[in-house]
Prior knowledge:
Distance between the termini: 11 Å
Bound molecules: calcium ion
Number of helices: 2
CATH class: Mainly Beta
CATH architecture: Sandwich
Radius of gyration: 14 Å
Amino acid sequence: MRSAYSWAVAAASIAATALTAAPAAPAESAARSFERCPAGHFCLFDGYDGSGLMASFRQGSPNLAGQSMDNRASSLAHNVPDTVWCVYEGRNYTGDYFRVYPGAAGPLSELDNAISSVRRGECSP
Ligand SMILES: [Ca+2]
């Protein structure tokens, strides 16, 4: 059985983040947040709120163990314009998955500490 989850709250989440990031956000807080994810990258974080270890991608990874992020990501940030990304429970883009839309930033609820691969583009089971 496969299931797909959409990222419904993404737009609201990134909007709130952008507001709090305004001019004089302390460096300490910025370093722990989703804004660490560079433009043009898709990022995974160990912590729920963009904190902890971060792995950033331009194309993806078939095995997140290579980025020390296997079964570890608890939140994500999607800073790639105009491109859907897909995260998978299994290695090599297998198992449960969900698609992530541009601008998304927030905690992983369904696949918390369970993602093992991720790639740019539409989900293809
Ligand atoms: Ca985690």
